[in-house]
Design goal:
Strand content: 25-35%
Largest sheet: 5 strands, antiparallel
Distance between the termini: 112 Å
Order of helices and strands: HHEEEEEEEE
Number of strands: 8
Amino acid sequence: MIDTKKCRRKAQHGFTLLELIVSVSILTAVIGVVTTGIMDIQKKSASDVNKVGLAQESRQFMDQILRDLRQSGFPSLAMFDPASGVTTSSNNVAIGLISFSTSAIQFEGDIDGSGVSEVYIQVVVPTGGCPCVVQRGTVLKSVGGTPDYYTELDNVMSQNIFTAYKYDGSAWVSGTDDISLIKNIGITLYVQSPTPDVNQSTATYPTTTMVSEVRINN
């Protein structure tokens, strides 16, 4: 005759302590592997987002500079009737470049349709050198005075971002050539992220370099 009590005890038999320890150990190892994988994916994603953001910020500023410079010297004196008595000192005439250096430019132009403005773009070098800050300021020609400067781009690794060229493509030489000979301006942005790449074993900071050139009305 079958012993029903003995069968019931066998059916209700659970894990032994050893089996439980082994199961927990395996589960812990699996969770650890999954967690490490998720963290690695998150780190890589954050690093990729950082690189994309750095490139986008640099591109936006580059586009801003190019848009501004294309309006340099517009509207020019040649667009007005000589009989009107308009001169280069008139508030509705832009004379183009006022000053130029490898780290700062100043020019006049109607950059947004609101009237002729004086535009200042300059690299600010902190004590100790770069990373530098590029600032931009504008003030209406009719108002004059010193503009309010706004930071457009941080962590620029070179203070010499502007290059000037003449009509024939040769480099414009400061102190030798007249500023009216400048017809093209080159811009080189070398920007470094303020945070290191988490995917690298050593402290490596992502960088992006952008180079462009624009013809101006000067």
